[in-house]
Amino acid sequence: MAVFLQDYCVASKDPSISRGYLSSLQSMLLAGSSKSNLAEATRLGALASLGNKLGNPDITRRACLSYPELLRSFQATISRATAISTVESLTIVVLLGLYEMISATADQFGGHRTHFIGLSAILSSRSSDDEYPPTVMVCKTRAPNLSITSLSEISIWPHDISISCNPGADNPTNSLDVLLLGFGPFFRQNQDLLTDTLVPPERLLQAREFAISMYEEFASWPSTLPQEWTPKTIGYLNGTERKEKALGSFALPSRIDIYFDLFVCVVWNAYRKCRILLLNFISTCTSRLCDDDEFPQVSHSYSQKNLNKEVRELSEAIAASIPFLIYQNPDALLVQSPVHGGMTSKQETLLPGSAHGGLLLMHILVVQEEFQWIFGRDR
After folding, report:
1. Which PANTHER family match (predicted)?
2. N or C: which end of the chain has fewer CB within 10 A?
3. Would you give the DSSP letter of residue 79?
4. Angle of the 87-103 helix axis to the 57-78 helix axis, nearest 10
């Protein structure tokens, strides 16, 4: 378990800026019972991780056999209203998600959806058919077709849980919490528009206008951030350098950015992923409406040319974050690295980062890879 904690926990350098990642797990384990759900969830994650590292399926199987019992125990615990919103319960949910990613294999990849829906049912105390995401924040909606009619109709529960470290300091209408809560239900309930050719044009138009409004809210979020949350570019690689330093089939980005910590980096990439999904949604609606003269065309800001440009910029920003997520010293990729305000050409050995940097990157890259308009080196 000590190795697991070292691999998967990130202590925040400054809790007023970043929450870190599972930063309080070790202290919670020391303060609690060794037979608690939290301890068991950590143990299963540690077993799965150790089994992978050693290539020992017997160790991984031990975790797999214990997993159903943990789910039953956890469900019984959070059936009490006072238990569902505790930090311990929320941490267990994160650990269960980590276990799912760590234990996945090429043959059992499809099990994720089953466990995802099961956890959703546990957390929402609803039928698993609802397929709500396993989240501690609930979105209250009114409009059945578009899910929400305005961002002000979204409420967050519990109210003291937020991506930011000081939720009360942020304007609620500008917080990323509110934007993500609005994005999820809207996107899930309107995904059929992307493939259903029988959808009425009026619904396409309404959905596109709402998506544009939501996209503009997302686009304004960076302007609300403190300086510490701003990505910093530490250098660039030209084509020759990228080719020389490429590791196997891994194509290096041309730009390398660093962040305050992994938590901040992952939040940024989740934000970028949502913007890419919204741009794809807007583009699809526009292409479906372009043959109908009865409906107004989209403004120049959302022309296909500009959409392509924004997707490219967002994709490049995600790519620029990859070295920070998977290496301890991403500046070692640069021919010249910044040192004490100056520059040095000293070559350093790349050091692998903690295991969860790559895990937290996976979904972002899967979403990007699905879009046909991301191509070439970016893909």
Report:
1. TRANSCRIPTION FACTOR DBAG-RELATED, ZN(II)2CYS6 TRANSCRIPTION FACTOR (EUROFUNG)-RELATED-RELATED
2. C
3. T
4. 150
pTM: 0.77
* DSSP notation for 341-362: TEEE-------B--HHHHHHHH
CA distances from 101 to 49, 65, 304 (A): 10, 16, 36
Q: How many residues does the chain have?
A: 379
> Which ranges constitute the DSSP H helices of 79-190?
81-84, 87-103, 111-124, 176-190
Rounded Cα distance between 357 and 322, Å, is: 9
Packed helices 111-124 and 87-103: angle between N→C axes, nearest 10 degrees: 170
The pLDDT tens digits of the residues spanning 29-56 come to 999 889 999 999 999 999 999 998 898 9
Q: How many CB atoms lie within 10 A of CB 256?
A: 23
CB 184 within 8 A of CB 140: no
The phi and psi torsions of 174 (rounded to 5 degrees) equal -110, -5
- The string of pLDDT tens digits covering residues 291-319 is 555 555 667 777 888 888 898 899 899 99
